[in-house]
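Notes from hallway chat w/ T.B., transcribed later so I don't forget. T.B. wanted the structure written out for a chain they're using in a teaching module, and asked if we could keep both sequence and structure tokens in one place. Agreed to drop them here.
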Amino acid sequence: MPSDEARQADQALMARVSQGDAQAYQQLVESGIDRVLAVARRMLGDEMEAEDVAQDVFLRLWRQADRWEGGRAQVSTWLYRVTVNSCIDRMRARKEETVDELPEVASEATQQVTLEEEDLQSYMDTALQALPERQRMALVLFHYENLSMSAVAEVMDASVEAVESLLARGRRTLKKSLKSQWKAFLPEMPG
């Protein structure tokens, strides 16, 4: 739960923003932009889309400041929730777009790419993108954004137990999907 001081600070800033205070708005943007971008990048796997999401999130904050209910959550929690929901909307729109496209025919690779040439992070990002969106969301918020289990539950509008389950399933899936990359990267590691 957010501290009373944090809630009061959020309430004061949002009250100023709702009255058109650009300086208070700038303060909120500066304190939240890095986190919003980080979540959007991990969720979407695309820098340009992440920037679009961040712009949409902060525009929404500006437009909805007068409806802020400070006793319910901190601004940072609201930002995470709106960011995650915006990302989910974009991912669903992608799925709808790809249904209308013809499938690509796989072609034989012309060059062997070794793990040493690839950044291990790209494997992780690819594996993360393949996870179901709620598992990905839980992993991103918990491991990359370092939110507490209860904060993740609040952002996701789920119970702590549901978040624990999503994290466990996501970790198992990542472990399986990255097993061969880890073996190639660290062959002496037991499988």
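Follow-up for T.B.: The first helix runs from residue 4 to 18. Might be a good example for the class.
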